[in-house]
Design brief:
The chain is α+β, with helices and mostly antiparallel strands. The protein folds into 3 domains: 100 residues, no CATH class; 107 residues, Phosphorylase Kinase, domain 1; 173 residues, Phosphatidylinositol 3-kinase Catalytic Subunit, Chain A, Domain 5. 35% of the residues lie in helices and 13% in strands. The strands form 3 sheets. Strands 4-3-2-1-5 form a 5-stranded antiparallel sheet, covered by helices on one side. It has a 4-stranded antiparallel sheet with strand order 6-7-9-8. Strand 11 and strand 12 form a beta hairpin. The N and C termini lie far apart (57 Å). Bound molecules: adenosine-5'-triphosphate (ATP) and magnesium ion (MG). The site of magnesium ion (MG) has 4 residues, from loops. The site of adenosine-5'-triphosphate (ATP) has 20 residues, from loops.
Length: 409
Amino acid sequence: MIKIWTDGTEAGLTDRLRERGSTFVYAQTAAPERAVSVTMPVRLQSWDTAFGLAPVFEMNLPEGVLRERIRLAFAKATGVFDEFDLLTIVGRSQVGRIRYTGVDDALDEAVPFQSVDEVLASRRGSNLYRDLLERFATSSGISGVQPKVLIRDEGDSRTLTDAGKRISPSYRGATHIVKFWEPNEFPELAANEFFCLKVAEHCGLDVPRYRLSEDRTALVVDRFDLRPDGTYRGFEDFCVLNARRTDEKYRGSYETSVLKRFGQFVSAEKMSGESEKLFTLIALNCAIRNGNAHLKNFGICYDDVLGEAWLAPVYDLVTTTVCMPNDNMALTLNGTIHWPAMKDLQRLGETRAFTSAAVIRRILERIADALADVTVELADFSREYPAFAPIGERMIEQWEIGSRSLRGA
Ligand SMILES: Nc1ncnc2c1ncn2[C@@H]1O[C@H](COP(=O)(O)OP(=O)(O)OP(=O)(O)O)[C@@H](O)[C@H]1O
Ligand SMILES: [Mg+2]
C-alpha cells in the first residue's frame, strides 16, 4: 500500500487490485483541493484502474535507461519489479505536486545537493553522467525515455528567486532537470534540444531556463513547476488528461486528444490566449520536424487543482529527423501522421484553436522568422564546434523544409 500526498498533505491510499490493477481511495478527511488530478475529484467511491496505476500516478515513472537502472538495482532483492515497486522508490521526489510514501512514513523530499555550475563545466570523458545517475536515480520521479535526473541547486536559479532571495532552507526538493544522451542512439541530442528550445523562445512561447554544458553532454533545465517559495505547482500531461497509460502516448490526434482536450481543462478566461499558444507549439513541432510530440510532451499547470489551469511551459523539443530521416508525426493531424501543409495547420487553428485566419498567418510567419533567426546561431555554433557540425547542418536542412511548408511552398 502506498500513501499519496498532494501539496504536502495526505490525500489517500493506493494499493494493488486483483491480478494487474490498482485502486485509490481518498482519505475521509480529504478536502476537495486535495484532489490528485483535475480528472479525479475527491469522492467517497474508490478510483479503480484495470491495468497498472491510475494515469496520474503513472505519469512520472521513469522510462528508458533510468527505469532499467532502478529495476536492475532493486529487482534482485524482490525478485519481481512492477510499477508499484518503482513508485515506492521514486515517489518521494516527483515532478508536480504529488508525493508517495509508505503508509506510516512522513514526507521527506530531501534531494542531495549538486551544483549546476559543475554540471555545466563538465568535460568530455568525465564520469558525470554515471555519477549523477548513481546519486540521483532514486530521487528522480520524472518520466521520459532519454537518460535524465532531478537535482537540487536551490542557490542557482535566478528565475526562481525574487530579488536574490533564496528558497526557504526548509524545502529540500529538486530544482533542475539534467538530460543526457546516448551517442549511438541520438548523437548531440542536448545541443539539438537547446537550439529547438531557442526557436520556441523566439516564437514568444514560455520556455524555462535551459543551458547546455560546455562539452554538450548535458542540458540543464529549470523546473517550471517549482514556485519561488520552494513548493511545487500542479502539472499533468496529456496522457493523464486523456485517461491514457504511458504506453499509449502515441495514440490520438492533435485535433481531439490535444487541442479539444485542452479546452476541457483550461479556464474560460484563459482559453483564447492559451489555445493560441498550444496551436503555436503544435505548428512549431511540425516546422522543426519533431516526430516525438506525443501526449506526454504537452501538459497543463495550475496552482490550485480546483482553480485556473494554463498550458505548461515548453519542453522536449527536438528535430528528430536528423537521426530518423523518415520520422513522421507522433499523433495524427487530419487523419494522417504525414507532416502537414500550411493549409492543414490553418484548418487546425481555425477549427480547433478558434483563431482567425489573420492571426494564424501571423503565428506561422513568426515561427518561420524564429527558425531563420536561430538558423544563424546554429550555423555559427556548427562552425565553432566541428564535431557538432554534421548534426547542425542536418537540422538547418530540416528547418528549411519545415519553414517552406509554413509559407505554403
Ligand atoms: N522544465 C521542466 N520542469 C518540470 N517538469 C518537466 C520539465 N521538463 C520536462 N518535464 C517533465 O519531465 C518529463 C520528461 O522530460 P522530457 O520530455 O524532456 O524527457 P524525454 O526523455 O526527452 O522524453 P521522451 O520520452 O518524450 O523523449 C516530461 O514529460 C515532463 O513531465
Ligand atoms: Mg518527453
